[in-house]
């Protein structure tokens, strides 16, 4: 930004032509560019956004005049997003900026709203505010507290900021007024939400694409429009642990696309290396996954340390293989409101031991992450609900339990334990450096039966679409949905799919190259594949590989049931066509 003013470019550091050339390059590679934006509009007579805002009367008022506050640019006014004219003006400012720099989304910060000053303020005479020295968050306006109204000093006191501060502390005075005379006292919690809706409308109007918005302030309904990060956390083991319960809570609040700043926004004290190793192992499975720190922090990009680079490739590599599963969970969230990341009790509601568990979590219903959350630990004690659990990084490794049990798992510095539950069919791809690249790779479906089951079922699903359409839905000619089913019964295994709206996936040329079956015996014979009802006669390219399952500990019944992982490779099953395969199990 030029002088920290919204919708501007610094003429030296980010000249328009160079930035546009850079964006053209990354867009060609399939990458995206998101910039930060704050609601405070700098009071500056030469600043077009401010001038157009004044002309359209879009700012929150105090006794008829725009309310004055201070944020990063210095003195600012705050747009009143409850005013329809403000929504139009904001959308026009986004459009103007997009012509200057064709960004792919907006990261809207400081929108609780955050104010560096308190009360009623004026711009000081005879001194520059801020003067460019010291931290920018020290109030330098001339201010006086407002306590004369019941809105600013209500009889019911809240413990604001943990210091029993006045209700309008470091925000807009609560007696200020919005559109139609609505007081800030009544509208405060809606500020970030109303800005999110206006931002969504403005971005979508530009190119008709699905907007990407990341917002700090949320309200009920924010998850319909935006992703959320959990604010300014610390680079501490405590905050790493706390991030899990925060992300789980926001999923329950209806904000499914959520994550915390990986490695921490404020570093407690360097070195961060071990903490960063463990944090990326958690953060790779946040729905919204971002390493972020404040301007004054020591460098903490994941490539700063060789050990963290290794952990990141491991954990993020798995994330990118799981993109079809994660994207299908986004579709489920959009349709039903179900969180993407969930507490264990969502899948196992009848196990009271799970109700307070927030050191592990589920991605969807069936993928369990059990991370290390403490310093200098190379083992983790994980609670396993009853059933069969397969390690996602080595699917030959299995844990079986009849009752909820804690298990001690090896977790060297680069290892995060992730397990897949029985009765699941999990769609995966090969992964890649970019989501665009990963999305075009062939698919694997992993079919997880209960270990050694003579009778069993498994199911899963897959949603694919043009991921920039405004809405995730079927019926537009640019999406495909598949249900996967599997059964084992009387020594016969069957796996099949049911497709809705096949055209989009067929046009993209996606196909399944491998089916991995967990927990059964190998193929004994009578192997058949049908595609859209027609038998595939030539199966000469197919390869069948088996590897016996390894047990992390003894089964509770004292014995080991002999079962194995079966890979069926060399398949070319089109995503978008119904397939069915079956075989008799052998020994």
Write the layout of secondary structure elements.
Elements: H1 16-28, E1 34-37, E2 41-42, H2 48-56, E3 61-62, E4 65-66, E5 69-71, E6 74-77, H3 84-100, E7 105-108, E8 120-122, E9 142-144, H4 184-187, H5 191-207, E10 212-215, E11 227-229, E12 234-235, H6 237-252, E13 258-259, E14 261-262, E15 266-267, H7 273-283, E16 290-291, H8 306-321, H9 323-336, E17 341-342, E18 361-363, E19 367-370, E20 379-384, E21 387-391, E22 397-401, E23 405-410, E24 417-421, E25 424-429, H10 435-439, E26 443-448, E27 456-465, E28 479-489, E29 492-500, H11 503-508, E30 511-520, E31 523-531, E32 534-535, E33 543-548, E34 550-551, E35 564-574, E36 579-585
Parallel strand pairs: 1-7, 7-10, 10-11, 11-13, 12-15, 14-16, 22-34, 26-30
Antiparallel strand pairs: 2-6, 3-4, 5-6, 8-9, 17-18, 18-19, 19-24, 20-23, 21-22, 21-24, 25-26, 27-28, 28-29, 29-36, 30-35, 31-32, 31-36, 33-35
Helix pairs in contact: 2-3, 3-5, 7-8
Domain Glycosyl hydrolase family 31 C-terminal: 337-426
InterPro entries: GH, Glyco_hydro_31_AS, Glyco_hydro_31_C, Glyco_hydro_31_TIM, Glyco_hydro_b
Keywords: Glycoprotein, Glycosidase, Hydrolase, Signal
Characterization of this structure:
This protein has 587 residues and is α+β, with helices and mostly antiparallel strands. It contains eleven helices and 36 strands. It has a seven-stranded mixed beta sheet with strand order 17-18-19-24-21-22-34, with helices on one face. Helix 2 packs antiparallel against helix 3 (84-100), helix 3 (84-100) packs across helix 5 and helix 7 (273-283) packs parallel to helix 8. It is elongated. It starts with 15 loop residues before the first helix and ends with a strand.
